[in-house]
Design goal:
Layout lengths: L18 H14 L11 H15 L3 H10 L10 H22 L8 H40 L4 H28 L2 H8 L1 H25 L7 E4 L2 E4 H8 L3 H17 L3 H17 L4
Length: 288
Amino acid sequence: MADEKKTTPTDLTPDAITTKDLHRAWNRWWLVDEVPRTYDRQVAPAFMYGLTPILKKLYKDPDALREAYDRHMVFFNTHAIWGGGTITGIVASLEETRAKELAAHQEETVTEDLIQNTKVGLMGALAGIGDSIDNATLQYIFIAIALPWAKSGSPLGALFPWIGFTLVTYLYGWQFVKMGFKLGRSAATEIVKGDKIQNLIEGLSILGLFMMGAIASSYVTVSSSLKFDLSGKVFKLQTILDGLVPGIIPLAIVMGIYLYFSKKGLNATKALLWVTLILGVLAAIGIL
């Protein structure tokens, strides 16, 4: 009877994780993060798919590899760039440490619970930052830049926001992966409290407000048709307002909507209905 091949401790030694491995994991997650979404797991299958090449290099024992697959198929949901990028790097770092400890039969400082709790603790916080910066600020900056092109009929008006947003978020998402792997669990602190990230967030917020102001003044066009006769001379309300503060009516409408959102919450449907009703009444009585 042939001797069975025995697995030695050397056989279980994990391979080193390279920048190429991290890049491959990021590409896989970035491409499919919204594809295998399910009610009970959300985007966990995509996260596990991204990590699979790394896990295979780390865990040579089939049982340990199976356990790694299982723990990354548990419910997971976060922002694709800020959360997915950072957590991919952090988890790769934690898994590497755990694999080395298991292979060397050392005391486990990185347990399964630690890895899972790290993911759960970070996914909500990082998703909030990502939604605020990417979805609520950055994409509208690209839209604002492209609006003149769209207005002139150029295809760039439709393509530029998508291309620009995709390229920029992909590039800094990749930086988050590398930072997460390098810093480990402390990477989250660097993102949430780090001066560079906070300066970036503040700068993007200011730029976003600036671009929204430019859009409001350029594309919200509302004027008054009201005019009156005094001593044989016709006075137009719009001319008077332009002499005082040009664009004051569009500004008043934008600020009114902003105040409505501040007091009533971000309910765009109700805001549009109120704006339509109020402007319709003002137009009917000859003010606008």
